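The passage that follows is intended for readers who have already worked through the single-chain material. We present the inputs for a multi-component assembly, then the predicted structure in tokenized form, and finally a short commentary. You are encouraged to pause after the input and sketch how you expect the pieces to fit together before reading on.
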Amino acid sequence: MRRLFIPLLFAACAAHADEVQVAVAANFTAPARRVAAAFEKHSGHKVQLSFGGTGKFYAQIKNGAPFDVLLAADDETPARLEQEGAAVAGSRFTYATGRLVLWSAKPGYVDDKGAVLKQGNFKHLAIANPKLAPYGAAAVEVLAALKLVDTVRPRFVQAENIAQAHQFVATGNAELGFVALSQVMQDGRLGAGSAWVVPANLHKAIRQDAVLLDKGKGKPAAEAWLGFLKSDKANAVITSFGYEV
Amino acid sequence: MLSLPNLASDLGAVWLTFKLATVTTLILLLIGTPIAWWLARTRSWWKGPVGAVVALPIVLPPTVIGFYLLLVMGPNGPVGQFTQWAGIGLLPFTFWGLVVASVFYSMPFVVQPIQNAFEAIGERPLEAAATLRASPLDAFFSVALPLARPGFLTATILGFAHTVGEFGVVLMIGGNIPGATRVVSVQIYDHVEALEYGQAHWLAGAMMAFSFLVLLALYTLTGKRRP
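Having made your guess, compare it with the prediction:
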């Protein structure tokens, strides 16, 4: 019995050491799952993904959350964590650059130039809260560039993150909204409804940075995960979801 | 740590929350009283199912309620199609949408205390009223209602306080619109998410004090009535 028990215990410990806990920005949920599956197959390590808002992750990490790696929705939060000593200096890099899309669940509602914004016969335009979410801030920049902020603002419905903005539009409660291209793209094509992929020059680049957190320092699985995230294999998955790398 | 509160938007959220809780409580007292009366006195088979539906919000997570309200009140949902047909438009992202959601969400906190109070009266005072030739309606207003006053007090306080404390449902169907759906709990959440902890403390601390005082009042007032 004992002879069997001790190796088992060892195996359990070893498996635990080879696990990496990753906090993932909500907009990166689908690609992160896909990349994690490939990584597990490739390396034998286990990945535990947690999805949520970057601001919430920041507060949790500062208060002892057990994450090894943060895949943020912006580039400010990882930089801030690094400055405050909660992340490993020099481990930051941009794993994906997000693209913004004006999307409606109704086919033919959004034209491919976004002229629907000027015609303006909609009641609700969903955006992620610009104070909290980079995609929301980018949406406001786009409207400012089009000189439409003031006319459209009364019709804003603000979601707490980009996932909820997508939900408002997908359920039809908002006729259209600014969401992440990654949310409406399936296998390289628009999954449903109609969309205008916003030209990248209308807003600041939505750079999403990854960073190795203090808890993940020296963990082989955490370092392997960050390495894999930069690989061609991972990049192919990430671009297929509508991000640029 | 404590910066000055952001007065305009914070006070706007406080006023909106007060308005929402007041309207919701009034509506709940109006529609909750007959429901509670029926639940307290019926011998119908329907008592169980209706009581269970009223109590649902106690056990359901707000994400479930908010998600279904969004679908049911949306353009493809039955309520949404009715409100569009009636010319009201869609309810999500409006003040009245929040009222409808809050009425459902806070219903058990109003119905149950009133129901308990009605049940505690029993048959005898009403039978006595009947022998004095009071009509059932007369007996209800001049016997049952006054005797159930402690239940109404509890119901009013709990219904109001529970609506003030609502968060998940509002987050899911509100759309965070200043003056229409941005209530205090959402405003606090925004402050925390944006790392404005100082601003968050003002509102969060006020909520703590308010909730404590409300419950203190409730327990002191209802405690005194017991022999």
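Commentary: Residues 100-197 of chain A form a domain with the D-Maltodextrin-Binding Protein; domain 2 fold (CATH 3.40.190.10). The radius of gyration of chain A is 20 Å. How closely did your sketch match?
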